[in-house]
């Protein structure tokens, strides 16, 4: 009887154990592990969405086949955003309300991620996206957002280095007129400016743009001289752009197309017709190192799952794209983090509703969201895409790859790292490159659009467009500029130093510039029309785009026009006749040396002679000792004043050294004296008749100047009476005016720019000299419109 209660107790214990096991099995879904609910939001109508879904499904299978004893297992709940921000947010709310998902993978677009990241911040649910690349998604604005892909700003330096390596100086940006397309612009433009690359035009393509609108924009781009285009667009829009660009003839020789990583990363997923249209394009993409995990068996298993979801699609035989690899590694990272957090912490707390609350306020907060986020961003491992490191809440990138689309596929051109720049190869640790950086020969050859192997120069003369109107006018000195009309074509022909400098400057520009010369008053019928002030004013009136000639930079002209840097020396001087000056002074032989020099020389000679006599006397010279006599006195006087070397008279070694030094100094003085005396008797016979312009003005003298120049105003400012000023237009007239003198209708002096004076004196070197510069000027330069510079 006592055994019956024990039997009953044993049976009850067995029943309770069985019930507990059944409840535990039911709670774990029959799989032996706790379910960790994760939401997935993708655009399942896009190829990227389909590839990503297949990769994540395979990742779940592979992860738990490698870790069968894990206590957690991801339960994936997939929702289709259909490319709509509203649909994506609605799906995220539904996943959180109905399945209490602890993390959301996706969404696919940056605009969708911007909205859902706000939901993640409210509910403390990590949002992990492997496709949202917009730089606007930051930790400050979205603390629960993790970017398992590249930030678009990471690639801008590689693009700038690529452009610099090929020597292109101008690029045009073509982008989606969306948050995604515009997000990279500030970073890209800044990087291009640091590499001295100019962006003359931005082409933003609206999502509402029709095919006609896009073709019109392409024709606009083709009319420009810049031939280098950087494309930052979604795959759908980019496919249309390149297809239409090919139809417009913009995928031919001379054009350069560069695609960003957003398109280059999924180049394998584009249709063959689009890839064929993109032949010759170069791009920057994430570098996937070689891995044993990415073997043929992996692609076969992936294609089986891909066709399970897409039975009407053909298998992908090339590659599953970098985006698919990131989707695979993202699931592994989340699965590892879920195991560390565990389901035991999978709890939620609902906020207390309050007045004016929204549907977001009514969502439950994930208690373990912060812990899960920490585990995700601290997780580092070697995935199939390479090193998968999210420590800074975005994928850390060490290497980017440069590719060239050719022959229906792409091929390797080179690598780029932030530390070493561009190169063809990586070393073994794949963190540093080999060879010098930012040099074009370090890269593999590229097949450019039109199947050309010749590196495009980056610019061409546009099919249509205005020419630069270059105004020119003849100078009094044709050495600077001379203009004439071609009798056959009636075109303006020009020559001279100003033209040579202008045309050489244009050759150094990194782009083509079409121009034509237009003469300013070639006939010269009107004096006023030949004025340089009027010539410069034509640029202000926009008759010319630029004025080329011997134009002096002065203040009043700069009020309505801009000048280039000067290309000649500056200054204003006078040309005056020289007069002969014959000096009949009997003391002319003393003029070669100054009074101070004569005095110092005399003291030096006396000092030297005393030193020699004293040294000889102390050494016991026989000529200086003995009884006094007239002969002895004569010898002493001779020794004191001799100018030749008496070998028998100097007995001291020291006195002979002093004597030699004295002779050297004497020879130097003699040479200086001879040179100066010869100069006095020849060169200095010619002296300017006038040395001060103010003196000429006070004396009421006549002065000449270059007709049409600013000298007339300068002379008036100095104080000259207009009746004392005469203008001339040729060097021969200048010469005649000076040689004739005031008595015969000439002038006393000419006031000209220094470059003119040097040319005048080179031709008429006899009888004239230059005085000055008497006034400072800025030199000759070219003129452009102040409004055209901006």
Automatic annotation (TrEMBL):
It is a multi-pass membrane protein. Residues 469-790 form the Ionotropic glutamate receptor C-terminal domain. The chain crosses the membrane at residues 597-617, 664-683. CDD domains: GluR_Plant, PBP1_GABAb_receptor_plant. One of its GO terms (cellular component) is membrane. Residues 1-26 form the signal peptide. May form heteromers. Glutamate-gated receptor that probably acts as a non-selective cation channel. May be involved in light-signal transduction and calcium homeostasis via the regulation of calcium influx into cells. This is Glutamate receptor. It comes from Miscanthus lutarioriparius.
